[in-house]
């Protein structure tokens, strides 16, 4: 199967992508992993991406699209793949359609992990990370430490990362609504969109997604 996974930050895309890819025996292709792999390997695309990132700029669509194309052409993706973080806008979605068409392929489904905005803010803004090298992560609601502000494992101080502040999360959501959310309507128009309620236990969300794909 060839699947695109979409949803706002905090919807659990990375977690669900890993489980779904394993259940379907297809590779999980993450934009973040693509960037890291190309940069660490020193590929030409990696050098281009790094230059933009080091300057604090977004990596242009053409570089992201080229990385995705290269990855999807690898042998392990011949029988299908799960895309996570790509496409991130309608232009990339159109480019993906062209790539697949040229290869005589098509998408089977687009899974939209649906989570209310307030829940997204609660999930991300509630994270607390240990300042020590252990990097253990807690959550004030879902995985609270035994003692507030103290890591259960090493006794280190727990803090909220700047990227997890409510203001930052709401800004990320605004970027998502502006840039990425339009692809939901794009794929809905193609009859590919499947909306999955993403509240509840991880296993329950995976089960809903697998049942939807079987249909």
From TrEMBL:
One GO MF term attached to the UniProt entry: ATP binding
Q: Name one GO biological process term.
A: AMP salvage
Which positions bind AMP?
31, 36, 57-59, 85-88, 92, 161, 172
Reaction equations catalysed: AMP + ATP = 2 ADP
Q: What are the boundaries of the region NMP?
A: 30-59
The protein's job, in short, is: Catalyzes the reversible transfer of the terminal phosphate group between ATP and AMP. Plays an important role in cellular energy homeostasis and in adenine nucleotide metabolism.
* Annotated PANTHER family: NUCLEOTIDE KINASE
Q: What is this protein called?
A: Adenylate kinase
Q: Which organism is it from?
A: Streptomyces subrutilus
Gene that encodes it: adk
């Amino acid at each position: 199967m060839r699947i695109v996974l979409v949803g706002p930050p905090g919807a659990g895309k990375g977690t669900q992508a890993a489980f779904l890819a394993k259940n379907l025996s297809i590779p999980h292709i993450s934009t973040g992993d693509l960037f890291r792999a190309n940069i660490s390997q020193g590929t030409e695309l990696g050098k281009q991406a790094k230059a933009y990132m080091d300057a604090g700029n977004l990596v242009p669509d053409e570089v992201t699209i080229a990385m995705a194309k290269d990855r999807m052409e690898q042998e392990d993706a011949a029988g299908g793949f799960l895309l996570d973080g790509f496409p991130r806008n309608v232009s990339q979605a159109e480019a993906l359609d062209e790539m697949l068409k040229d290869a005589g392929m098509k998408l089977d489904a687009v899974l939209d992990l649906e989570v209310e905005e307030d829940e997204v803010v609660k999930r991300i803004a509630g994270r607390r990370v240990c300042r020590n090298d252990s990097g253990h992560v807690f959550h004030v609601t879902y995985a609270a430490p035994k003692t507030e502000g103290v890591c259960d494992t090493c006794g280190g101080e727990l803090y909220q990362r700047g990227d997890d502040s409510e203001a930052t999360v709401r800004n990320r959501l605004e970027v998502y609504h502006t840039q990425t959310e339009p692809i939901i309507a794009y794929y809905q128009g193609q009859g590919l969109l499947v909306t999955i309620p993403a509240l509840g236990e991880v296993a329950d969300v995976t089960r809903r997604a697998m049942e939807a794909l079987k249909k």
